[in-house]
From TrEMBL:
Gene3D superfamilies: 3.30.70.270. Residues 11-180 form the GGDEF domain. InterPro entries: GGDEF_dom, Nucleotide_cyclase, Rev_trsase/Diguanyl_cyclase. It comes from the Bacteria. This is GGDEF domain protein.
Length: 207
């Protein structure tokens, strides 16, 4: 997975980027990925900065789901991934494409349990779909979930860093395709690891 750059863009700079790079394109075209229609990295960098500030100021939870697929999806597979992420995202969530094999859903006002449940639903659907020339095998789809409890002070890129740590653990454990890490209140354990095991995913989504 290509490492996401921490280029936090204030609103004015984001608008300038859109006006400079878009030309005749609309703002939506500038801030979405051309292949999938999901939000792109420039938009995500701004929203991570904005939502981190908002969550810290108002004492709200903030979570994200970081998805990696071992083999780059074909165009039809990319469309399926985008559809699943949109269907499992609320109106307040932000599904983004980082590169051809990795995706992130930013979930404001969402605790760890809610993000884990969403991740389980996403995995259960993608695990059954042909994304390249076949259905993905064990260990080829991994998800890292990151969350910060209400009132936690965070740096701009800290949530993404936690998600990367969780994803690395998930990619290294075939039987545990979803791993989550959370930043908790001082004195309550700091970062915590929780694992969703492959055999329990159906139970987690109620099937």
């Amino acid at each position: 997975m290509q490492h996401f750059r921490h280029s936090w863009l204030p609103r004015q700079e984001l608008m300038e980027l859109a006006s400079i790079e878009s030309g005749h394109l609309s703002l939506i075209d500038t801030l979405t990925h051309s292949d999938s229609g999901l939000y792109n990295q420039d938009f995500l960098s701004y929203k991570l900065y904005e939502e981190t500030r908002r969550a810290t100021r108002f004492g709200e939870s903030l979570s994200c789901i970081l998805l990696a697929i071992e083999e780059s999806p074909l165009r039809e597979g990319l469309t399926r991934v985008a559809r699943v992420l949109r269907n499992e995202s609320r109106d307040t969530d932000f599904p983004c494409q980082l590169d051809d094999r990795s995706f992130l859903v930013l979930m404001p006002s969402t605790p760890l349990g809610g993000a884990e449940s969403a991740a389980a639903r996403v995995f259960a659907q993608l695990d059954q779909l042909p994304l390249a020339d076949r259905v993905a095998g064990p260990g080829e789809i991994a998800i890292g979930v990151a969350s910060a409890e209400p009132g936690i002070l965070m740096r701009g890129g800290e949530l993404y860093d936690l998600a990367c740590e969780a994803l690395a653990l998930a990619q290294g454990a075939e039987d545990f395709p979803i791993v989550s890490r959370s930043k908790q209140a001082a004195g309550v354990g700091g970062s915590a690891r929780r694992v969703v095991e492959r055999d329990t995913l159906n139970a987690r989504i109620g099937t």
